[in-house]
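=== Structural record ===
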Amino acid sequence: MFLARIVARLRQESHECYCLLRLGGMHAAMTWREYWDRERTTYVNERHRQLESELIGRAVETFIPDGTASILDYGCGDNRVADEVALYCRKLILCDSAPSLLKRLKQRYAKNSKISVVSPSELHALPSGSIDLTVANSLIQYLGSNELHELLGLWRRTLKSGGLLVIGDVIPTNASDVRDAMTLLRFGWEGGFLFAAIVGLLRILLSDYRKLRRDHGIFKYDEADLIAIFEKAGFVMKRHTPNIGHNQSRMTFTGRLAT
């Protein structure tokens, strides 16, 4: 019975995705920024989204030095646990470049005086050396070298002396789509959304996410190369385990300003 349900659902999903493609649901000129500004994401359902947010939130909390810290979550995405993280700091700044996402975040956290929601351009008004902890999770794989270089300059300027930079969910050069799929299925089994994970993998396979990866690419990094890039920008970096999030085949790095 369970297998029959999976087969029926997969047939339905593949037909829906095919119709979307035929009707022009895949925009040829779409960018990563436009993709993440829509409701469609790589989360297979709400439970997946919530569990992943909770994992990331708990990981971020372990890096917070004390209750007086100012934190910048750059490329925050659809952060569902900012209220909980804000309990452990003085100020939490959520930053993302997607306009619709920023609007939702501002509505969600309007009543929390510790949380600010800003666009990247608004960060230029931050005083130098005003941030104790900067976190960028599952972000740099979507940034070209020029964008990353500019961002490193911003992080270097705003981070306090002795402050911490955390770069999470970096895709290694030996990453495998098959391994990522198996990791998601395992997470789905443990989290109670295995059926949705199976269907979600098919949707991703047929979605514009795959087209974007072909058109714009995903940036992967060797551990030593990433450390060298960040050190050239003025950071002393090292590999940190475990990785932020459920996929432990990916990498997290921590760093401080070079003295």
Q: What stands out?
A: Residues 45-190+215-257 form a domain with the Rossmann fold fold (CATH 3.40.50.150). The first strand starts at residue 70 and ends at 74. The first helix runs from residue 2 to 22. Residues 1-28 have pLDDT under 50 and may be disordered.
